[in-house]
Fold this protein.
Amino acid sequence: MCESNIYVIPSGVEDDEDGELFLEAVDKLMPEGEDVWRVTSIFGEQKIINGRIKSMHLVDHKILFELR
Amino acid sequence: MCESNIYVIPSGVEDDEDGELFLEAVDKLMPEGEDVWRVTSIFGEQKIINGRIKSMHLVDHKILFELR
């Protein structure tokens, strides 16, 4: 399975490259508006993120959001 | 390996849910500005996309962009 883990960092924090784990095993990411994303894990858990994507490394299973 | 294929659809086209293949086996996606993304495949090929993400289905290895 090729899901990714989502990590988040607070807005304006430049030196936190790792972030905090927000949701594991994410399959789907859908934009719901300006800097609003609905993310769904392979287990069906859904969460909303208010932020924007800072980086995606799919082979490492890592997506990093910067919160707004 | 958990890379994704990137597909693109022209701006304003609502009924094209599949899109056209833009780049295969993408590992990294990095924002470079407002609706500008640098994407890199596992083979090192890089391309720039002027557009925004419309959907991501990681388990299906599919990321869809709407071009600007």
In short: Chain B touches chain A at residues 1-4, 26-31, 42, 52-59, 61 (CB under 8 Å). The longest strand of chain B covers residues 20-33.
